[in-house]
Write a structure and sequence with these properties.
single chain, 448 residues, alpha+beta, 4 domains, eight-stranded antiparallel sheet, 9 helices, disordered N terminus
């Protein structure tokens, strides 16, 4: 637009002076200079490149853009990514720092082998035939090629459907590992991700012995499993002054979950996190494998809350998306299933109990804001709906008002008054007595 405006102005000035009476020489020269200056195109302002998006620091981000070097690959149908890892260089094995993607591939194994080879730039028919022969005769194939200008590898293993391995449920086809060497700059990004998911919070006073200055940055790795988050692990090694003495001191002080003297290793549990420490006595190295058990948040930031479901006696069932509190002797059970936990049912707070020979069932759904309250005795049952936002009961009655009043009054142990509120109070009072808080405050707690 600036160029267009300048051009129009220049044209109008030239046109005006062409039609004007003749001027003196001095004026003519100055007019020509002004016209020439106006015709000069303005130099565009320098543009700056947009700042790159910051990389995420949760384990699952390893599969996203910025870390996943195969992010833009559209794999054929039947290919499923189940994990990824960054592995520090292993000079003894002739391996550089690398990123790898883990997949299962369902289908014809020879077609899968050819696809992986071609993905890594292998087009020579003799080489393709050799890889196919290896898959046919040996059940696996090791492919070397290039990807994005760097040395890349594909390791394929024949699999059968339904076999439950430690890391994955196999398919009829192949298990694949696609790997590519990374640059030193990329390696630093991966190392930052590893350290963001590493914690020494479980060590108490021993944490100072495992400070940042003791970390071997050339020995950092991370593996992320999408289908089995409990298999996600970060690997960190520390240089220590005296591995033998430190091992003895730690196992004699900390509450270990297990200890193996022969392998100089032990385990610690810290809320949802599991940690394995193993000591290289000859080289004074402490190797740590930490399982964060949560792919969605940086494990390094995790700290146990002062008050949580688990601190109050709830048991966490992450695979079911539940936290459950039980008192079998009192026939009491409270279950929490918050949105986002992965629980398949449509309720979020469940209470099961007994009162005066009646069984109580109350269930809250955050989506509707309703508490369904049911009382049963023998073959009879009655229920009501409590609207949380209005602190009132809905007008619906089941099965009829007389039955509802009789059963609710018997459960609450009253002969007059609001029988529905009295039954609901059995729940709210119990929560207050057991946990020292309202049911809403209990529901708002974290798991750990």
């Amino acid at each position: 637009m600036k160029r267009l405006v300048k051009t129009v102005i220049s044209f109008l000035m030239i046109f005006a002076f062409a039609c004007a009476p003749a001027a003196t020489g001095a004026n003519t020269d100055s007019t020509a200079e002004a016209t020439e200056a106006a015709a000069v195109t303005a130099t565009p302002a320098p543009t700056t490149e947009p700042a790159p998006e910051p990389l995420g620091m949760a384990p699952i981000d390893l599969l996203g853009k910025g870390y996943n070097l195969f992010f833009d690959v559209v794999f054929p149908a039947g290919y499923t990514v189940y994990g990824a890892f960054f592995d520090s260089a292993q000079p003894k094995k002739g391996r550089n720092d690398l990123f790898a993607l883990n997949l299962t591939a369902e289908g014809d194994r020879l077609e899968i082998t050819r696809y992986c080879a071609e993905l890594l730039g292998v087009t020579d028919e003799a080489m393709l035939a050799a890889y196919a022969d290896a898959m046919t005769n040996d059940g696996y194939a090791d492919i070397t090629g290039t990807y994005a200008g760097k040395t890349a590898y594909a390791w394929l293993k024949q699999t059968d459907a339904g076999y439950e391995s430690d890391q994955i449920t196999d398919v009829e086809g192949c298990r694949i590992e696609l790997a590519v060497d990374v640059t030193s700059e990329q390696a630093e990004q991966y190392r930052a991700l590893v350290l963001a998911n590493y914690s020494t919070a479980m060590l108490g006073d021993f944490a100072d012995r495992f400070g940042e200055d003791t970390i071997r940055r050339d020995m950092l790795s991370i593996f992320v499993n999408v289908q089995k988050p409990d298999k996600t692990e970060v690997y960190v090694s520390h240089e220590v002054k005296d591995a033998v003495a430190l091992l003895t001191e730690m196992t004699g002080t900390l509450q270990t979950s297990w200890y193996d003297e022969d392998t100089a290793s032990f385990g610690l549990d810290y809320a949802m996190q599991r940690v394995k420490y193993s000591f290289d006595k000859e080289n004074n190295i402490a190797n740590v494998a930490l399982s964060p058990n949560n792919n969605s948040a940086p494990a390094g930031k995790f700290k146990k809350s002062a008050v949580s479901f688990t601190s109050l006696g709830f048991t966490s069932y992450p695979n079911d998306g539940l936290c459950i509190y039980k008192e079998d002797q009192n026939h009491l059970e409270i279950a929490i299933a918050k949105p986002g936990w992965g629980h398949v049912e449509d309720w979020n707070f469940e209470f099961l109990g007994e009162s005066n020979g009646c069984s109580l069932y109350m269930v809250y759904a955050e989506a509707t804001g309703l508490f369904h309250i049911a009382v049963n005795k023998g073959d009879e049952g009655a229920s009501a709906e409590y609207i949380v936002a209005e602190n009132a009961f809905a007008s619906d009655v089941y099965p009829d008002e007389e039955t509802q009043k009789r059963l609710f009054s018997e459960a609450a142990g009253i002969t007059e008054g609001d029988y529905r509120a009295a039954v609901f109070a059995l729940f709210t009072d119990l929560v207050q007595d057991r946990f020292g808080m309202t049911w809403q405050e209990l529901y708002a707690l974290p798991i750990w």
